[in-house]
Amino acid sequence: MHCPFCRNPDSRVVDSRTAEDGSSIRRRRQCPACGRRFTTMEATSLSVIKRSGVSEEFSRSKIVTGVRKACQGRPVGDDDLAKLAQTVEERIRGLGVAEIDADEVGLAILEPLRALDQIAYLRFASVYQGFDTLEDFEAAIASLREEQAEHTEGE
After folding, report:
1. Which residues in the chain land under pLDDT 50?
2. Residue 36 buriedness (CB in 10 A; 0-12 / 13-18 / 19+)
3. Model's pTM, two decimal places?
């Protein structure tokens, strides 16, 4: 890391702290040449490869925007959407990959959305799983009913 004051190519880390959201590290550095201190931020990058082949930085806000459309008219608040986006990001980062296909991001949204709101899940799944027929919807609804029956039997 070059010193921003004297451009010396060396510096030493004096202090490191994790940012509040845990997604980056703040480092306090000192230049051995001029003795001045400066701060750097380190964060891992996660890129999403879109269908067109274009790569862009992963964004929680894009998840919230996409899921908000599926949740329109449903009792789902902004806090719920923010938690869902965080859960999705944590799962994707847990895969340990630097790049992921946009379709994989959409599929990663399904499970937490299913737990949040079943109607929003069906709306979203119809796009990302490519529902083409009524049978596709019927199969998804049957799966939700089975899950609900298992859940009520277990109580």
Report:
1. none
2. middle
3. 0.68
